Structures are given as structure tokens and as C-alpha cells.
Amino acid sequence: MSAAKPYQIRKAAVLGAGVMGAAIAAHLANVGIPCLLLDIVPPGETKERNILARSGLEKALKAKPAAFYSQRGARLVSIGNIEDDLEQLRGVDWIIEAVVERLDIKQALYSKLESVLKPGTLISSNTSGLPAHLLVEGRSEQFRHNFLITHFFNPVRYMRLLELVPNAETDPAAIAYMQQFGSEILDKGVVLCKDTPNFIANRIGIHGFMSAIQHALSEGYSVSEVDAILGSSMGRPKSAIFRTADLSGLDTLLHVADNLYQNAPQDEQRELFRVPEVLREMVRRNLLGEKTGQGFYKRIKHPGAESTILALNLQTLEYEPQPKVRFDSIGAARTIEDPAQRMLKVLDGEDRASILAGETTADSLIYAARRAEEIAESIVAIDEAMRWGFNFELGSFEVWDALLQQPAILQKVFKDRELPALVQRVQSAGQDTFYITREGQRQYFDFKTGIYQPVPKPAGNVSLSAARSSNKVVRDNGSAALIDLGDGIGCVEFHTKMNSIDEGIIEMLRYAVEEGQKQFRALVIGNEAADFSAGANLLLILMGARQGEWKMLDDAINGLQQANLLLKYSPIPIVAAPAGRVLGGGCEIVLHCSHTRAYAETYMGQVEVGVGLVPAGGGCKELLLRYGADLETQQARKTGGTFTPARRAFEIIALASVSTSAREAQELRFLRKTDTITVNRDVLLRDAKADALKLAEARAAGQWQPAQAKLLLLPGPGARLVLEQQVDNMQLAGKISEHDALVGRHLARVLTGGECSPIVPVSEQQVLDLEREAFLSLCGTEKTQERIQAILMTGKPLRN
Q1: Which positions fall inside the 3-hydroxyacyl-CoA dehydrogenase NAD binding domain (predicted)?
Q2: How far apart are CA 216 and CA 233, in angstroms?
Q3: Taking the CA of residue 82 as centre, how many other CA atoms within 13 Å lie in the half-sphere pointing to its CB?
Q4: Is 205 exposed, middle or buried (0-12, 13-18, 19+ CB in 10 A)?
Q5: In what order do the strands lie in the sheet with 452-454?
Q6: Nearest partner of 634 among 623, 648, 645, judged by Cα
Q7: At 438, is the secondary structure helix, strand, or coil?
Q8: Residue at 459 is within a domain
Q9: Residue 640: its pLDDT value, please?
């Protein structure tokens, strides 16, 4: 075994500019790694030898969902071709091969790479299933030592899973480095796999797909029925089975299934991977899914009306209208939030949905338990692979645990089937479950030792759930909690539904600043939910407006405004740690904090106009200040004047602009240039706490001072008329409705300072008063109330 080598990735190269290769290059650029994107020169091409790489980059720039955090990131990607630019690979630290899934083509490319590799260059393949030991056949010792498989999932930026598959001679230091790099730098959930066909996620996932389609064909379930049954009610994405297949591409799924059939001859379930003729025929007819516009589903567009989605009849291969699919067990489970309990409710039913759910669950769980020791280092790796690779709410062994705790449902699901040996081991030698919690620490059954081991966590991990278990909660009012993170740092955690802002959250923010400063040196505002906050509690606003509770609404809005001012002028530093959706009032809370440590996938914006309102928690005021409306900046500014900040803020708020990433949030100025970004969600609170500690130490050293109130110079009624003219023009052109125009005029009045003089400064409170006045006025309109009701009932904006 070679001695440990120091690895460092400062520049990378991706070979193959197809969908995956270009997306990998884009994501490397997202995290600041310059990347060379190369592809072949098309046969006979003489003019544009880089055409394939250029085309791949252009497609990545147009991709939806976006492949780049920001379009500016494309500057870090340079293009070329493998024939002319091979020598440039001498200057990179990591080469990712992402060419067509053929062993001979990959091996021919590796032969070329051998001539230009420098010592210490990491080489990896993005193959979805070819074994590592076959890929490195005939390669030099240095190549084998620096080679491993890095299997990304599509779309690369958003899918969490990164499977690492070393070959028998891969340098352990390279494996350890890529685990750390993949997690900390690339924001991936890294799973170490054994070198077996299709690794972990596709091995278990394709088995599940083939099981579902075999049951559908033999038992007469329609495409629509299968997806209605095996979707969110069973802890899976709404895309379920067949819609997911359309998104992945049926040709890709068949390739993986064929690979398993050919390369896993000892698998007792091998025959399940024999592709049914109906799927072969779909591929022959080019019914591949999204990439060809039709697969198991087909969208029919109607001019001026909503599209119709047809479903494929698996017997006739003709498209038919989708019937309304209803099952009692699915209906009973729909409102249950806990995924395990939701799943158990379906499995305990007696209808066709329960039968299919039970059959496919039994198939999948037995297969995972039988394959576990062959394909993975632990059950945790399998569960993480399924959650991160297929967006399942629960991994295979987490589902086993739910069933093991319900013997009657376990018996019903497995009937006369023998439970796998691994499950029997847990029942006899373990504690009847694969996971247990001891002293606030989650542990898993280690099949290597037969004892429970701690579930691995990132170094320095900060866990709010662990802090709760350790009695670190200082105060909890039901909507939010103040939790002691240690080292003199407190954390305000929201835990309402969608973390929507209510009276309890506002009260906790006030308490944390006013009383928390007596106990803590700095505060973090963050949580472990998918979304930081979806904004204000719209139901309470609608009820208050319809009941004419104007004083209650005025007090509630003023309460949020004053709480946000407390955050902004807090005598101790306050660090916001947003992730996911940070909308409306949630965005306003972040805008008022001393510093922000944002997760890279942060979607931030003031979206109040979508429900016929304007930001009223200080969002208008803060965006004006971010664009330079304060007196000091105005006095120093030579061009643009007082109108520019109002115009820019108006453009962003009126369009309900939401950042597609934390990087874009900086471009929109929801985040400052000095705010910092973390790419790994698992360590966001760790990093936010570290930022809070630095600011606390700077405060102790006299190097950090609380913010000071600012005066604003706003352009007044003349500028408002200009903005209103733009609104009127859009209404005349039919781009916005009459009510949109009314909202726009209210917003223009707030941002230009009402009736203020353009040469007389106004206070922050004066702008807050304008925000509150506009908000309440719009709440009183019937159309705004209709918009709020539509969002609450359908989740979709109403344009009335």
C-alpha cells in the first residue's frame, strides 16, 4: 500500500460534455473550482472543434432547474476538446470522466490520460454501474492508486447523493480526501460503496422500479394507480414510480437494469431485472420520458388553456386521459405528517392500494436486507443512499424499524415470507430495531460487529435535536425555542408549520434579544427544517382582515417591525442561518441580522405582491438601505441620486424576485457581500455558530459595534409618479391586472417615501409606518383577500 498522499483540488477537468458532464462542470464552478470541459471532436468537423463542449456548456446555462448558482459562474468553465487540449490536463488536480457508458470507450480514454497525468492527480469515473475493477484493468499502479468512481445523480446541483466506489488499490488517503471534499465543498451526501454492480442506490432503487412494474403488469394496475399509491403516501416523492422514470429517462433505467442482469449472475432476484417486452417496445418507439416529450406520461398543450396530461396504457401502449384515482387507505394517510405513520396507515388498509403497497414494500425491504452486507459498509450507507439518491423520506432500514415496532402490520405485509437473516439477527441479538437512541445519540446496528455504533456526523456538528435531548432548551413557547449551543452562543429555532411567523415567534425574538443577552455572547437564528421560513401566517392575516380586526393586525405588523429593529440594533451579534425557502417575513428577519451564514441552496425573496400585499416587516426599508438610500451614501454618491435605490428596490419587490441560490441572493442584495455561504446543509449551524463566536470575540476586543440607526433620503412624490407611470403602462399592455396595479402604486408610495421632500431625511420608523399603512390598506380589499385564500387553499397564486 502506498504512503498517504496530500491531495488538493484547486482545478478540475471534466471529460464528456453531455448532460451529466456539463452539469458536473457547472457545479464545480458553483463552489469556486475552475474547470476545463472537454469532449471529442465530431467526425468530419473542421471549423468548430470544440462544438460539443460549447454546446454542453450552453445547455447547462439554460438548464431548468438552474445548473449554476449564478450565470456568472460560467466564467470558471473553459472548453476544449480531447484531441487538441489533452496536454492541459497536466495542470489539473482532478479529472472526472463522464463519457458514454461503454467499457471499451472509457478504457481507451484512460490509456490517453496515462501519458499526461502528473503524480497526485485524482481520476474518477461518473459511471452509474460499471465496476471499478474492470475500469482500471491494464492501468499503471499510479493510475489505480489515484482512481475511484464518483457517481453523481441527476440533476447534479440538487441531488444530494454522491456514491464513492474505490477499486482494490485506491489510496486510502484519496478515499478519505474525496469523502471530505464531496461533503464539505460539493455539498453532497457522500456514501462509500463496495465495488458491486450498480453500487447501492441504483441496485436497490432499480429493484424497486422493476418490482412495481412487474406487479402492475401482472395484477392490472394502471400507470396512474401505481403513482397514486407509491408516491408521497409511501414516503416517496410525488413523482412516485413512473413519473420518476420519465424524469430519469427510460433508456437510462433499462441500461441499469440490463447491467444488473448481466453482471449479477448470483443474485437470487436476477430474473426480476429481465426487462419486460413492454419497456423494450417503449424504447423502440422513442417513448423515453421528458427527453423525448413522452414516456409513461404525455403532456398535450392547449393554446390559452391548461395542458392535459395523458397516461400510457401499459397493455395497448396508447395514451389515455387519467382517471381520478381514489383509495380509502391513501385518503386516510394523506393528512398524517409523520412519514412512518403515514406509510403504516396505507399498509394496514384492505384495498387495492394497500395490497400493491404491501407487495412492493416486502419485495424491496427483503432485497435491501439480503444485499446489505454485499453492497455496503453499513445499513446507514443504504438508508442515506435511498434518501439522498431517490428523495425517499425514510431509508430501507428505517422502514424496517417502523414495521418491527408494529408486529401485526409486519405479519400482514410479509405473510408467509421468511424474514432475512439480518432482520432475524436484530430481533435476537439486537433490540428489535436497526436504530436506537442512547443519551440523545442515534446509533445503528453494525452488522460487522453485532453491536450498536453511533451514526457518523460531520466534525463539529451542531445538532438542535441533540441539544434538546440534553436539556439545553432555555425557553420554548410552542412556536419557537431558545436553545443553548454552548460557548456562550444561543440559538433561536422556529418550529411552526413551514416555520411561518406568528405571535409566538415574534415574542421569542424579543425575548432572545432582551433577556438572552444576559446569558449569551451572541445569537444564531436557524433551524434544522428544510425551509428557514415561508413567511407570515397568512391564515391569521386573512381571518383578521375578514373579521375587521384592524387593531390586532396593526399590532401584529408593528410587533414584527419592532422585533426586527431589536435584531438590527442588538447589543450582541446576531447571525442568521437561512436555508431553503426564506420568503416574505422570513426574508425580513434575515435582512435585520448582524451577519448571515446562508446555505448555498437558499431561495430568498420578498413575495408579498403575489398575495396582493407589500413587505411590511421592514423589508422595503432594508432593501432601500441595501441599495444606498441612506443619507451618508447619498451625500457621497455623485450619480443616480435618490431615485436609483427606490427604482431598484421597486423592480425586485414588484416582480416578487426570489434568488435561485445564496450567490444570487447576494447579487439581489438580500445578502451582503460580507455574508458567508456554506455548501453543506449538515454543517450550516456549525458554521453559523463559528461566525457568532468570531463576532462575540470581536465585540469583546472592541472591534465590533452594534449597528446605528440611519436616516434615509427618498425621492418623494415626483419619483412616485414615474414608478406609477410604469405600472400604468404595464396595465395598459395587459401584462398586469387592475389589482396588480393597485398593489404596485402602494409599493411605489412606500419606496419613494410617501409625501416626503427629496432633500429632507426620513427615519427608519417613518418608512416602517408607510409599510404598515400600505399593508393594512391592501388587506382591506376584496381581491387581496381572494388572493390570500387561493394560496392557502391551492398553493397557487391567483391573478384576479
Answers
A1: 11-196
A2: 18
A3: 21
A4: buried
A5: 435-438, 441-445, 452-454
A6: 645
A7: strand
A8: no
A9: 66
Q: Provide the b/e sequence for 135-151 (b: ≥16 CB within 10 Å).
A: bbeebeebbbbbbbbbb
Give the pLDDT confidence score for residue 129 in this predicted structure.
Answer: 87
pLDDT for 2 equals 42
At 762, give phi and psi (nearest 5°). -120, 155
Residue-level pLDDT at 784: 97
State the residue for C-alpha cell 402492475.
Answer: 216
The pLDDT tens digits of the residues spanning 231-257 come to 999 999 999 999 999 998 999 899 999
> Pairing between strand 595-599 and 297-302?
unpaired
Asked if the model's pLDDT at residue 208 lies above 60, the reply is: yes
pLDDT range class, residue 638, cuts 50, 70, 90: low
> How does the average pLDDT of the chain come out, rounded?
94
Domain of residue 118: give its range.
Answer: 12-192
> In this model, does residue 28 exceed pLDDT 50?
yes
- 796 occurs within a structural domain: no
Task: Determine phi and psi for 431, rounding to 5 degrees.
Answer: -120, 35
Asked if 437 and 504 sit in the same domain, the reply is no
Confidence band of 795 (pLDDT split at 50, 70, 90):
confident
What is the three-class DSSP state of 161? Answer: strand
Percent of the chain surpassing pLDDT 90: 90
Cβ atoms of residues 68 and 37 within 8 Å:
no
The torsion region of residue 83 among left (phi > 0), alpha (psi -120 to 50) and beta comes to: alpha
* CB atoms inside a 10 Å sphere around CB 476: 15
Whether residue 398 is found in the same domain as residue 489? no
Are 388 and 255 part of one and the same domain? yes
Q: How far apart are CA 294 and CA 287, in angstroms?
A: 5
Query: CATH no. for residue 621?
Result: 3.90.226.10
- DSSP conformational letter for 294: B
